[in-house]
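Backbone-to-sequence.
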């Protein structure tokens, strides 16, 4: 069987081994004795350890093979040597490194330090490791003497109601971990927990780390903002009982939050054990920074409680789980704040302009960001006038992002106060240079000039003749391109200075009529400066050439064509924000079929 190399590998391996060892056909049952529940549970436990060690932290591909073995030919070093005929299983867990050979220079002592091998050494009848090219195979045997009358038994194996920790003749899983593998277990558990940025995934991982290694079932409650507790995750050594366990725990009163770093005895929840056996449970508060963030409840079937060694090991792990929950919550809080702030940087929707079809493409370069240094807007001014803009703040950090929102809202304010294109750019330029000067004088962390390129214009549609009168200016921005109905492309504005450089800079605007069938293409430098080696997309008027091939296309189709060409220009990922704004004048009779939008 091949299991996925992810956090669910251990669960998949446990299901496979348990099914393979307990599933019996009628014909097979006449030929071989039953496998005891004890051997099944030990095999499931050891495979879970080996698979977790191979798949979870390293991402290796893992394969599992198991077979039943009957006879008296177990190795002489086996603890069962001379005990007569035995029944048992041989299981091999193989993990393959995808890119390199596995070193064969490791000795037995170094192998014993690996995750899972301590348990194999303690519980297996015999075991070994085989190295091949890019492959490491760990095999182990589990066996027990046949009881008189067992030969040829055809009854299905009854599961042992007691887990490994409670069986006579076993020192218990907790003792094994504390003596041989506790330190390694905690180190690798810390590594796994540190990579989780979602509190519910932390809770799920905690359950899979503890069950079935140290307990038979686990429930994790997390605190809520209202001060209550919610049951986040439930895990059981037998996945078939997870839902029953969840229902039982939800019926009971959730554990109360306590500032304690030690285990607290907890009443055995009714119905948590499918066999009806009694058991014990311990509650471990998730305490970090003198605050309780939840409770982890562990349960053991059978009359014996958790060993002291297992309790101490669990307390150490729970402290790491609590800190991982805190880290995940801090990340979630910061992400929520960031997304809330970003949502205010761009308009919720684009205004619909009579006689003008509009489209916008916007792709911020930052990972998990919805807003970058580029920004856009399209809003009504009243009196049959609409304003549009496309801007780019230098940089891609949070300061640049905050500047996008400031510039956009300031443009709206100045426009609605009646400032035309030239006056608006002059006042925005003064505001930016003044802010940069103040930041430098006060020694702010944001000190230094913050330049802004901006393409700003006004549209006044002609509701009778069609088309629209356009007044536009470009301050340090890639120049807008005008596509005529005959396929010719011209620049629609003159190049001018960036905003924020010279407080006394003067700006002028260009005016023209956008006739029906003509389109205006506005982009940021994420399009024009898209690189392929030493070449840029707009070299030799490359963007104009792309636009010439868009004759007859609607605004949305033009925007999508430019976006696709930008991505296809190079095989390298796009490292800059990308924004495309298209305005197309359409015949008045067709305006009902055209709506502005963002995609």
């Amino acid at each position: 069987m091949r299991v996925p190399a992810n956090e669910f590998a251990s669960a998949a391996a446990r299901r496979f081994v348990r099914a393979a060892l307990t599933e019996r056909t009628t014909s097979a049952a006449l030929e071989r004795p039953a496998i005891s529940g004890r051997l099944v549970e030990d095999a499931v436990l050891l495979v879970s350890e080996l698979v977790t060690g191979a798949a979870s932290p390293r991402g290796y591909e893992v394969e599992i093979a198991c077979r039943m073995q009957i006879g008296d030919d177990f190795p002489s070093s086996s603890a069962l040597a001379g005990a007569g005929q035995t029944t048992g299983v041989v299981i091999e867990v193989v993990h393959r490194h995808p890119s390199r050979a596995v070193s064969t220079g490791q000795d037995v002592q170094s192998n014993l330090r690996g995750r899972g091998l301590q348990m194999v050494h303690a519980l297996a009848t015999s075991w070994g490791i085989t190295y091949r090219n890019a492959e490491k195979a760990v095999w182990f045997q589990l066996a027990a003497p046949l009881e008189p009358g067992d030969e040829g038994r055809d009854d299905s194996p009854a599961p042992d109601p007691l887990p490994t920790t409670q069986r006579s003749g076993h020192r218990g899983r907790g003792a094994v971990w504390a003596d041989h593998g506790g330190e390694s277990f905690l180190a690798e558990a810390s590594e796994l927990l540190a990579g989780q940025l979602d509190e519910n995934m932390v809770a799920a991982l905690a359950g899979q780390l503890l069950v079935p290694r140290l307990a038979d079932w686990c429930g994790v409650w997390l605190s809520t903002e209202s001060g209550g507790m919610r049951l986040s995750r439930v895990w059981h050594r037998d996945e078939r009982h997870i839902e029953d366990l969840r229902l039982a725990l939800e019926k009971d009163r959730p554990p109360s939050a306590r500032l304690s770093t030690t285990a607290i005895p907890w009443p055995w929840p009714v119905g948590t054990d499918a066999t009806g056996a009694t058991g014990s449970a311990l509650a471990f508060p998730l305490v970090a920074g003198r605050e309780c963030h939840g409770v982890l409840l562990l349960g053991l079937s059978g009359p014996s409680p958790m060993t002291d060694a297992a309790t101490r090991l669990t307390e150490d792990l729970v402290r790491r789980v609590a800190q991982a929950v805190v880290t995940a919550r801090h990340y979630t809080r910061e992400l929520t704040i960031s997304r809330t702030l970003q949502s205010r940087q761009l308009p919720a929707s684009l205004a619909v302009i009579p006689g003008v079809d509009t489209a916008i493409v916007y792709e911020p370069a930052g990972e998990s960001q919805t807003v970058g240094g580029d920004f856009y807007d399209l809003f009504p001014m009243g009196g049959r006038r609409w304003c549009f803009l496309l801007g780019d703040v230098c940089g891609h950090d949070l300061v640049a992002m905050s500047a996008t929102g400031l510039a956009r809202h300031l443009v709206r304010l100045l426009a609605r106060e009646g400032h035309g294109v030239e006056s608006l750019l002059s006042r925005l330029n003064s505001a930016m240079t003044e802010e940069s000067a103040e930041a430098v004088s006060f020694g702010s962390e944001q000190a230094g000039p913050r330049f802004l390129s901006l393409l700003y214009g006004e549209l006044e549609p002609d509701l009778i003749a069609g088309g629209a009168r356009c007044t536009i200016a470009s301050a340090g921005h890639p120049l807008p391109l005008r596509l005529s109905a005959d396929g010719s492309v011209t620049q629609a504005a003159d190049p001018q200075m960036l905003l924020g450089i010279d407080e006394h800079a003067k700006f002028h605007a260009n005016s023209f009529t956008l006739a029906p069938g003509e389109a205006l293409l506005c982009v940021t430098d994420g399009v024009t400066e898209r690189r392929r080696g030493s070449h840029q997309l707009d070299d030799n008027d490359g963007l104009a050439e792309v636009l010439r091939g868009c004759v007859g296309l609607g605004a949305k189709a033009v925007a999508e064509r430019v976006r696709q060409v930008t991505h296809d220009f190079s095989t390298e990922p796009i490292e800059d924000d990308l924004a495309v704004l298209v305005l197309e004048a359409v015949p008045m009779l067709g305006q009902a079929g055209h709506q502005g939008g963002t995609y």
